[in-house]
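Notes from the 1:1 (GR / supervisor)

We went over the backlog. Supervisor wanted to see one worked example end to end before approving the batch request, so GR pasted a single chain during the call. The sequence is below; no edits were made to it. Supervisor asked that the structure be written out right there so they could see what the output format looks like.
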Amino acid sequence: MTFPHFVSTANADNQLREFAKHAQATFSGLEPIDRSKLLNRGRSLGLSNRSMAKAIGVSEGTVRNYLLLLKLPLQERQALTSDKTYRRALRRIGEIKELDNRAKEATEARIVEEIAAKGFKVIKSLFLEIRLASAFAEQVLEEAKFRIWVAEDTGALKSSETHWAKEYKDIIVQEKPENLSTLGGVDYLNAVIVWFCRWMTRVMPNSRSRSATIDLALERAYSLGV
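Structure output shown during the call:
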């Protein structure tokens, strides 16, 4: 299919008007892959899916689906010759997206697992440094996990895409609790828990990696502390 050359102009309204005039006259008669190419041409002009959908008289989801067809392998794109093959292609795209999502989830899970392993080592070294009694390690972790969960649930603590803060090594130094040796009993434990919550949320701003790290530390709490 040969597409008309839309005049480049700084006026988006003119571009949309030219696109709409051509698309309205030809869209329904085009094969599915040519509809995709036409919409892709509109995107290259800077037109949004919404504006193209309105101009042609279809839903925004329909525009999005046709653009997705361009992600199919060449052989499958060439087979798009009717609405029937278009519907079949959409199912194929759904399968591809599902596979991509699974691969992405597996990659993210592996990243989180690696971060948790590293985070556990950091927690272990810190508990040793403040000479936290191993008998209290699990209690500190459980209470900290609960407080952090409450903060997240109430919206007081937001999750970030960042797994490790860039300055996490500096935070480890800055956030070391002071004067713990002067405290005892409940005051000592509360001070450690407050410190750990503050330190953990700053060092590891991503909720998923933070939770995985604490869970791993809980599983191995027997090896923490002195």
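Supervisor's comment: The chain has two domains: 12-81, 104-223.
Batch request approved.
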